[in-house]
Design a protein that fits this description.
Number of strands: 0
Radius of gyration: 39 Å
Strand content: under 5%
Helix content: 55-70%
Number of domains: 2
Largest sheet: none
Shape: flat
């Protein structure tokens, strides 16, 4: 014991300097549920939907606008150019579809009836000029699209013998397509005599328009042959698309021959349909070989 300290029980020690006294926490008493408002279990929040990077959308295409469905694999730059090409193609189609019948039908009426028909010829020539202007702009846009489209360039596998053989075969097939297109145009002009189109101004204008479609397809197929000789796969893809149109025309001839019980048109249509199917199959394989893909 220290001097001066009394024996006995020690008094309770106070808190140290700077230390707060300890108080037990109050007990949490749950409140009873209120009458009339039953407690509802807490619903977990639904997981947030994943965030995707929004890509620029093309203008909405409605039924009857004559526009093709865009490939979802296109880049934004390609998509923008394709939409602009479609707009120019629509103007080009309107100009020629309206201009050619008015030009030739009006000239036919002016020669066979009265000179007032030449007024329709003048209007038709203006429409054709608008179509030609749209075609010029469309060709410029297509050139821009080729610069950013892999299939429009010379294939990286162009040095391979298989790719070169496939390109040569596709060039021959597109040459056959040119002949078929010109033959279809001549066939329509020949059939026009039996339809009485040459004695009617409106019928003559419609006949010339109908013959112009396969004739223009033949010109388009002829322009792909130099591309194929340079082993550019885009020429084969264009050839397949044009062959499908010729096949539709040949199917029409086949059906008319069967209905009329005429063996020559039926046989001609069947042969052309078979040629188109075979050519489309071969062009599809040639496109893969020019890309260096396995067939």
């Amino acid at each position: 014991m220290y001097p001066g300290q009394q024996p006995g029980p020690y008094p309770p020690q106070g808190p140290y300097q700077g230390q707060q006294p300890y108080y037990p926490p109050p007990q949490q008493v749950p409140y009873p549920p209120q009458q009339g408002y039953p407690q509802q279990p807490q619903q977990p929040y639904p997981p947030a939907p994943p965030q995707y990077q929004q890509q620029p959308q093309a203008p909405q295409q409605h039924l009857g606008e004559g526009e093709m469905r865009l490939d979802p694999g296109l880049t934004p730059d390609q998509r923008q150019l394709v939409v602009r090409i479609q707009q120019q193609a629509k103007t080009y189609a309107y100009g020629f579809v309206l201009g050619i019948p008015l030009t030739f039908g009006g000239a036919h009426y002016g020669i066979t009836r009265t000179p007032i028909g030449f007024a329709a010829t003048a209007v038709g020539l203006v429409a054709v000029a608008v179509g030609l202007f749209a075609m010029t702009r469309m060709r410029a846009l297509k050139q821009q699209l080729r610069l950013i489209t892999p299939d429009a360039w010379r294939s990286p596998a162009a040095h391979l013998p298989g790719a070169r053989k496939a390109a040569t075969l596709a060039a021959y097939l597109n040459g056959v397509l040119v002949l078929l297109s010109f033959a279809a145009a001549g066939y329509l002009l020949y059939k026009g005599a039996g339809w009485g189109a040459y004695g009617n101004s409106f019928g003559f204008g419609a006949l010339v328009l109908g013959a112009f479609i396969p004739f223009g397809m033949g010109i388009a197929a002829a322009t792909t042959i130099p591309q194929l000789l340079r082993v550019i796969p885009a020429g084969a893809k264009v050839g397949r698309s044009l062959y499908s149109i010729i096949m539709v025309l040949a199917t029409t001839v086949l059906v008319e021959g069967i209905k009329g019980k005429d063996p020559l048109p039926a046989l001609t249509g069947a042969v052309v349909v078979a040629v188109c199917l075979g050519a489309m199959t071969l062009l599809g394989r040639a496109t893969k070989r020019m890309r260096g893909e396995s067939v």
